[in-house]
Amino acid sequence: MTQKEMENPTEVEVELKRRLNQLTDHLIQKQAQAVSRFLDEKKSTLNAADIESGIWELSNSKLKPMFEQRLQSGRQHLGSLVRQLDSIFCAGAVFLRRNSTARMWSLVYLVCLHLWVVYILMSHSPVSEEAKSGAVISLENINNTGGV
Hints:
The chain is mainly alpha-helical. It has helices at residues 3-7, 11-41, 48-53, 64-98, 100-123, 134-145.
């Protein structure tokens, strides 16, 4: 593609982008409706203030043991993952401490990586109002109408 073709989209591309934005907005609205309907149905078993604060409990529910079991399993997996990462980083630190050439090349790699990230961040063109995704626009609309 030439630079001109990339900067000036065709009518079909503009229409497809507009349609994609509409479908995204529609999907977000449907999801918001489904969530609010679900919360309305479950108000008897769940306290909304507890959900927002992160402290919630199902009263007289068959699901409570299953949730507790899943939480415990997740904690065990997270602990195992942290221990594995710790041993990998310790082994890497020992290797770098003993090998000065590897230490120099890792420093060169980190400098190049940082320069690349700075280049990417600085070369990114600003997002125009037309190019905003439908999700961003919908979230702005929800925030503006939600009285927040």
